[in-house]
Amino acid sequence: MFATGIECSYPTLDKGSWRVDQMEICGHYRHWRRDLELVRELGISYLRYGPPLHLILLGPGRYDWSFMDQVAAAMQRLGICPIVDFCHFGLPDWLGNFQNPELCHALGDYAGAFARRYPWIGHYTPINEMYVCARLSALEGLWNEQCTDERSFVTAARHLAKAAVLVTQAVRRERPDAIFVNNESSEFYQPCCPDPEIERIADFENERRFIPLDLLYAHPPRDDVRDFLFANGMPKDEYAWFMSQEVPERTILGVDYYDWNEKVINRDGHADAMGELFGWYVITSQYYRRYKRMVMHTETNSRDPSDAPMWLWRQWHNVELIRKAGVPVVGFTWYSLTDQIDWDIAVSRPIGNVTPVGLFDLNRDVRGVGLAYKQLIEMFRDSTTVCPRWGELDETAALPPQPEQEKEAAR
């Protein structure tokens, strides 16, 4: 599945006093017809698309489908297969933020109503980047509730994971053959030096990154992480509920990768981005070992337009290499279709800087990486790979050693 996406984040800032709507500030509401045409002009068939939740979900059981009806009809006419993203870093005002337990059933009800209204849509992302959403909203204090404590992080993480489970169940009741692409940011933390405390922090952060996916996939976290969840407000009966869930076979693990995903824990205990060190292949191998799901490269880009074509090909070579090792990678995505606004500062302030990461700029003129992606698709769209059946994945894929092993070997 060669894909791109429409940047659709809509978090709130200043304790919910106002909202950053990327579809609005990047011009999608005005140019959505042209944007869909651009997708097809590059030969792309799959589109990660997040309908504006805050404009559709007006209250319990109340929906405004007017915008999405037009977009869905145009997608169907153009032959675009949407991968519908139900929640992308924000909630409607009436739900507040990710500390609110009511969001779980509200999103489940919304997903069921959506699937009934658009029965031809078969690909879904229940919740976008649950770990990133919980971390930036409830631990680093950038968005939404803007909390900075562990208990708020755990609350947001378990609410997001529960919502993802309920969304999945609601869609399956309407569309039993639906395919779910659960994408997450491929984080990795490296200690700066052989200091026991720094190594402890890095080790814990490398487990923390898995918490929402562990809950969604009913994968028991490490004992100390489970105890961390209990100590920070997760009821034991809720944990047992997560661990008892049946995970649909038709589930794809989406692994996003950017040059800031790899971080070093410095002597002060803080994490700083260190650029591409191990790369998507090595980090994705960790996620695949843990969850044994078909994989999709669901997001990547470069903030330097001159380097973007080379970055595109580097990511594609990672995909080819890991497929040869036996990991069933079934999709690749350049994110997003157009440039974005203020993503160089994680949308933490309304500066208005253009982040030039798109296949097209905000005038809808093609960038060099757009032409490179079109060429890549033309070269590889007819290539075939024998993939296993759902639930029959290779337990002996020839994956690279863990980065910790590589570090010890280097020493």
TrEMBL record:
Q: Kindly give the PANTHER family that the UniProt entry links to this protein.
A: ALPHA-L-IDURONIDASE, BETA-XYLOSIDASE-LIKE PROTEIN-RELATED
Keywords, ordered alphabetically: Hydrolase
Give the classification, highest ranks: Bacteria, Pseudomonadati, Pseudomonadota, Alphaproteobacteria, Sphingomonadales
Please give the name of this protein.
Family 1 glycosylhydrolase
Signal peptide as annotated in the record: none
The residues forming a coiled coil are: none
Picking any one GO biological process from the record gives: carbohydrate metabolic process
- Gene Ontology molecular function, alphabetical: hydrolase activity, hydrolyzing O-glycosyl compounds
